[in-house]
Specification:
This protein has helices at residues 2-22, 97-104, 108-128, 132-138, 140-159, 175-247, 249-265, 282-290; strands spanning 23-26, 30-36, 39-45, 48-51, 57-63, 67-70, 74-77, 83-94, 161-172. The chain is an alpha+beta fold. The strands form three sheets. Strands 6, 7, 8 and 9 form a four-stranded antiparallel sheet that branches.
């Protein structure tokens, strides 16, 4: 019993060793290639359990999930001849196992280096045709979309890699030019402020001049209307006086004389030098004669 049990255990151990060396598993998240004596005989081994001959076949597996390339910051020159420190990253995954193996031998770090070089070249070309404002805010999204599409085509053809997305995390000015750029921006803002103030003062002067002109016109029109109304009133009064005078000229003259006497003799301090036979004393003389 003991010998048979030992033999069974040894056989099981040998079977496990043979199975371990002759079988391999490709997961759903992996991509794999099969090499026979160092030559690739299957560039895209499907997921599942597969057999191989130890010493003859070699299996290389790659991570088929999305990978992140966090590239170091690089300096790029814009169309304004300004250097910018750009920190970017990219999302990629294996698209074609055969092309990927030929280009990188399955080395992920080599794939990252090749892709980083392409991304730096693409960013340099894109930044070189745009201003600082365009790459910072104005055309940043369109720049990233255009660069992703362009590099995806190149990476698939050359490396068997699908570039899913490229994004810029941060854009900074180099320290040696930050101060000069700040001073220039400050000067531009001050010039713009002075121009706006000058334009505002010019508009204000025009508004004040227009208001003064309208004020003069309104006052002139009001004075004209007032004089017209006053003239009509004087004419109406004169016509009324003339009509009343024509009805009884004697009574009208008498009334005017009485009002003149009242106005003349109301102040006892006044001295009146006039002839007693003057028409001014016409009705006073008549009253004396009647007495």
């Amino acid at each position: 019993m003991k010998n048979s049990t030992l033999f069974t255990l040894i056989a099981m151990a040998l079977g496990l060793i043979i199975a371990y060396n002759c079988l391999y598993v490709v997961k759903e998240i992996d991509r794999a290639v099969l090499l026979t004596f160092g030559e690739v005989t299957n560039f895209d081994v499907p997921p599942g359990i597969h057999g191989k001959m130890p010493g003859v076949h070699t299996v290389l597996k790659f991570d088929g999930r999305m990978q992140t390339l966090d590239a170091p910051a690089q300096s790029f020159l814009t169309a304004e001849k300004e250097y910018l420190e750009v920190d970017s990253y990219a999302k990629w995954r294996v698209h074609n196992t055969a092309d990927y193996y030929r280009a990188t031998s399955g080395d992920e770090s080599r794939a990252n280096n090749l892709l980083a070089q392409r991304i730096n070249t693409g960013l340099r070309n894109q930044f070189g045709t745009r201003t600082v404002h365009e790459v910072v805010s104005g055309e940043r999204d369109s720049l990233m979309t255009e660069l992703t599409e362009e590099l995806n085509t190149i990476a698939q053809n050359e490396f068997g890699i699908e570039v899913i997305d490229i994004r810029v995390k941060k854009i900074d000015l180099p320290p040696n030019v930050s101060e000069s750029v700040y001073q220039r921006m400050n000067t531009e803002r001050q010039e713009e402020a002075r121009e706006l103030r000058s334009t505002g003062e010019e508009l204000a002067e025009g508004i004040r001049a227009e208001a003064d002109r309208e004020s003069v016109v309104i006052e002139a029109n009001a004075y004209r209307d007032a004089e017209y109304i006053r003239g009509e009133g004087d004419a109406t009064a004169s016509a009324t006086y003339a009509e009343a005078f024509n009805q009884d000229a004697e009574f009208y003259g008498f009334t005017r004389s009485l009002n003149a006497y009242i106005d003349t003799f109301s102040d006892y301090g006044d001295v009146l030098v006039i002839s007693p036979d003057s028409d001014f004393f016409k009705y006073l003389n008549k009253s004396t004669q009647s007495d």
